[in-house]
Amino acid sequence: MSETGLNMSRRIRRTPYTDKVEQHGVRGFSVVNHMLLPKAYGPSVEEDYWHLREHVQIWDVACQRQVEIRGPDAARLVQLMTPRDLRKARQGQGLYVPLIDENAGMINDPVLLKLEDDRFWLSIADSDVLLWAKGLAVGAGFDVAIDEPDVSPLAIQGPKATALMTELFGDEIRKMPYFGFAAFDMLGTRQIIARSGYSKQGGFEIYLEGSHLGGNLWDLIWEAGRKYNISPGCPNLIERIEGGLMSYGNEFTRANNPLECGFNKMCYLGDDIDYIGKAALERVATSGPSQRLSGIRFGGGKTPPCGKPFPVTSHDGKPLGQITSGIYSPRLDCNVGLSMIIRSHWEVGTPVVVHTPDGKEREGSVSALPFY
Amino acid sequence: MSETGLNMSRRIRRTPYTDKVEQHGVRGFSVVNHMLLPKAYGPSVEEDYWHLREHVQIWDVACQRQVEIRGPDAARLVQLMTPRDLRKARQGQGLYVPLIDENAGMINDPVLLKLEDDRFWLSIADSDVLLWAKGLAVGAGFDVAIDEPDVSPLAIQGPKATALMTELFGDEIRKMPYFGFAAFDMLGTRQIIARSGYSKQGGFEIYLEGSHLGGNLWDLIWEAGRKYNISPGCPNLIERIEGGLMSYGNEFTRANNPLECGFNKMCYLGDDIDYIGKAALERVATSGPSQRLSGIRFGGGKTPPCGKPFPVTSHDGKPLGQITSGIYSPRLDCNVGLSMIIRSHWEVGTPVVVHTPDGKEREGSVSALPFY
Q1: pLDDT tens profile B299-326
Q2: Is the C-alpha dihedral spanning B3, B7, B10, B15 positive or negative?
Q3: Strand partners of residue A114
Q4: Residue of B3, B10, B46 to mutate, testing the A interface (most A Cβ within 10 Å of its Cβ)
Q5: Does B359 contact A at CB distance below 8 Å?
Q6: CB under 8 Å to B287, separation ≥6 — which residues?
Q7: pTM
Q8: Helix B74-81 to helix B129-140 angle, to the nearest 10 degrees?
């Protein structure tokens, strides 16, 4: 048993940055893709929230593993896996792509990086997309190779990230559009940097290839970041919920279709592309989804942690959904949460009741996302 | 952040027994199949070890999720997924089955339960076998349905398990062979019990269908178990290593083939069955595996925890393997570990050096498995 309560073993993989993260006094880990994700450093998630909004942070997000798909049938397989129209995808452009199964259930929501016409990375959330892709390829006899390369993203997030990264990697970094990526020189190698990250405060992700370089890259960023008041960090629950950033396994699972998740613009339903789950998705589109991912503001004082979902009902007790991520926002001075809400009640402003495990029934209302 | 250091969220699923486990003062969790696995209760893993060897324990192993495969092509798909010859598989018989990919790399090592001729459960270790199976089925156009049913195994382990279970479920329980399973009445339902479990102390696993029954089943076992000195427990690292029980993700991964893991008897190479990875497996069988899972005894005083693998070398510094699970055994009064060891050095008795993170070079030797 480690001091952080999570048993360490090879099965729950360390990252190229774990030694650094431990030196910085990480207070706990979660597990994503069979790999450690730091979950807390400083005194509180609230202090961390304010720091992220004002300065710059370095995040070990190596658990965002890459599934590399390459070979003659790679483009065909990738299109088969997502309802998003990839015909205009180009190198240097990251694309958020829902992956769905034959019932239109969500398998994952990765970022797709088109590296070459026949080589792609899916930068994944928490499910074994590699096994899904390999199963499809083996079952259908596709000519592709599918692997997990030795690539471990390191995120630089916060309003001062651009200044810091420009200092290190030059003005080209400023010119990248949101979700764009390009290769830059660092540590004697060429590495991909994307303008992306799991916050709404701006920033970058370095897709470091070569685990042995992890410590050096961390030190490079850290030293240059001192004058920007850099701190170690991790996805911040308050900031994530305020920003409406969903988490696979929390807000949505294989039981949800992409239209419920609000991925309408990434669901192409024209006749000239085929993909797995299209027929099922067309049926949902015809009838309209029965629920939709929504924001919920609610009061009653600071909510307890959302370890189990909080039921959401109408005032007369009708089940409307459940808050799957929720926390107190010190900036908005109320609790904020994310919940699928059924169609009859998803209009912004609809009053709801949130049932927290402390026994309280809390007044709330459906809110637009992101929270302002 | 929970007191146990692991952030609770919906993504890391609670089990039907988690409330009970928390009431019993669980001291930490691991994560397997996106679900909580208790990792420690009482004062030490050593006390827990002795208790497991002498009495009976109740283990929340709901994380051993079931992948249900049913339908006209179910038997065909299951055979395609494993090199084990399933032609004589019968209902009521659990089968340990390596699952391999097209390169003969290990995907998982579940127990297969044949429920009907066209309905199977794979009771899995830590990888998303459901996505692999679904990918194969969708890719190949098989007529099957693949789901994760609401089934949560509860293990009763230890030498007094048979007496306890006989008291609750009758003499039929004694007649089941090792790995056999049958349906029994409990809590007004019919539930499957198997003579199995992740220890070498004997015992049973109840494949509880219906999460809402979890608390009641726990209480039923607990109350009847009092006179047998029952305690809450979990897979015990000392007992597991002594017993030579491997753990997917620790001792072997997709980089290993089943012959390296010692699964020779489950690798059918005759011409009359085909499965994924057969050609690759035949190549390994022809040349012989280059390494093999082995036991390592080593001294130098109590080893530190094996959070990172320990390198194993010869006395002249040649890399031989790495200990992926290792701990001090109070019964054997030495450290015991599991390691792949290269062919030139895998003979029992071969001297080795184990390099632990405290900087020590520890004398050791290759040992037979299980350890005696």
Answers
A1: 999 999 998 999 999 999 999 999 999 9
A2: negative
A3: A120
A4: B10
A5: no
A6: none
A7: 0.96
A8: 120
